[in-house]
Amino acid sequence: MTNFNKSEYITIISERKKVVISVSSILYIVMEGKTAEIHLSDGKIYNTRMTFVALEAMLGDGFIKAHRGCIVSAMAIHEISDMIDLVNGEKLEYARRRKNNIIESLQTSRKRIIKGFDHDGVPDTEDQYHDYYRSFDEMPFAFTDIEMVFNEECEAVDWIFRYANEALARLEKLPLEKLIGQSFGTLFSNMDAKWLKGYERSTLYGETLELMDYSPEIDTHLKVICFPTFKGHCGCILFDVDKIWFEQHSEDSAKTLARYYAKLPNNK
What is the pLDDT of residues 68-124, one digit of tens each? Predict the structure, then answer.
């Protein structure tokens, strides 16, 4: 998990109550006059009387100034185009004159994290990776540990298979010995970069994510759960969605599913 914020939590007064907020849950903050609107990843919004300067000082350099009345978490940025596209589907306006500064600030925050990817505790050889993950060898689901490859702009551009089990080889339709130690882009010339954003977030920010999309490389609709493992790596559990089913046995199942779908970007 990234640790570039000054504090893991901030304390504010909202509606005359003291509220403790995890900094990692903050997407962005917008000033409305003398009131700061703090938007969180779970959809909650807290209003508090605080100056913009005080907020910037409290949050540290993990936040980027979009314009004079808005700061956004570097962790929350999916892409910068004509708008700042956030991971939850929202879009924020930014001052056009600040575009290069915003991009540079985002790269700087990512570079700081990547620079901290030391090799302590990371296996050195294929055998060491296999020893570490041996319990996954015979699992019925596909599993792999991948090492992310970043370019000079600190964007993930590929990944290398460091460990994979036989179920992963069957899913990828390649022999295991051809997967290990190879980059995905080398193996699949039609590599679809859409998976990179999720793997990048898991690797940089320590998030556990679920991705569901079509993989043209293997002509399969996939469900992928990715999570951080070693520094610079993430683990991925993959399922062919045509081979998994959802069973509902109680009202709680429906409630749980509703909570899950409420997290989708289009439902924010």
Answer: 899 999 999 988 999 999 988 899 999 989 999 999 999 998 999 999 898 889 999
Does residue 191 register a pLDDT over 90?
no
Strand partners, 42: none
The tokens describing 35, both together, are: 């009131």
Dihedral of CA atoms 31, 36, 37, 38 in degrees, nearest 10, equals: 120
Report CA Rg, the chain: 21
C-alpha span between 4 and 111 (Å, rounded): 11
pLDDT at 4 over 50: no
**Distances from the Cα of 139 to the Cα of 62, 168, 228, 246, angstroms:** 39, 10, 20, 20
- Interior angle at CA 227, CA 40 and CA 247, nearest 5: 85
66 in Cβ contact with 102 (< 8 Å): yes
Tell me which amino acid residue 102 is. Answer: I
Task: Identify the residue whose tokens are 């295991």.
Answer: 176
Residue type, 118: D
Tell which residue, 146, 228, 136, has the closest CA to residue 187: 146
In 3D space, the residue among 142, 117, 115, 147 whose CA is nearest the CA of residue 129 turns out to be: 147
Spatial distance between the Cα atoms of 77 and 72, rounded to a whole number of angstroms: 8
What is the pTM assigned to this prediction? 0.82
Domains identified in the chain and CATH numbers: 9-115 (2.40.50.1020), 126-243 (3.30.450.20)
